[in-house]
Amino acid sequence: MKKRSIFLMTVAAILSAAACGYRTTPGTGMAPAEVRILYVDRFVNTTDQPYLENYLKNAFVDQIVSGRRFSLAPNGASADALLSGKVLSLRSAHASLDGANVAQEDRLYLSVEVSLRKRSDGSLLWSLGELAENRTYRIHRDDYRSTGLNRDQALKLLARDLAEKAYRNLMTGF
After folding, report:
1. Number of domain units in the chain
2. What is the CA angle 21-68-34, rounded to 5?
3. Distance from first CA to last CA of the chain, Å, rounded?
4. What is the CATH number of the domain that holds 158?
5. What is the mean pLDDT of the chain?
6. pTM for this structure?
7. Fewer CB near the terminus (10 Å): N or C of the chain?
C-alpha cells in the first residue's frame, strides 16, 4: 500500500510539472526555428554618450554566446538573422542626497529598441519597441575620475541588463 502511494504521488508530480509547461530543453520562443546563426549588428547611438553603442553590442554578443540557443556569426553575410538596435534615450537624475542636499548617487535611465531581421530579405522577425532599465552609481564630488569610472560601469551593467531582458523576451515572449 505504501509503495503504491509513493508511486502515485511520483506520477502525479511528474504529470503536474508537465501540465504546467515546464521544459527541460530550451524552446525556440519568439525566434523562428530556422534561425540558428545570429550576427549582432551595430546599435545606433542617438545620445552624446560615447561608447554606449559598443557597450550594448558587446552585451548582446555575450548574451547570445552564453544563451547557447544561437551560434554567433563573425559577420552579417554568414548569419541567418541580424540583431540590431537603437538607443532611444539616456538620462540621469540624482538618486540620493546628503544632509546638505549634495548629490551622493545618480541614477541612469536607458531606453533602447531592438529588432531581429532575416538576413536574406530584411523581413522583421521580432522586435521590442522600447526596452528600458535604470541603474544607480556613486558620485565622488572631489574625484571626477572615480565618478566617471562608476558611470561607465553603470552603463555597462545597464547594457548587460537590457541584453538579458531582450534575450529572455526573444526566447519566451515575456
Report:
1. 1
2. 75
3. 44
4. 3.30.160.150
5. 88
6. 0.81
7. N
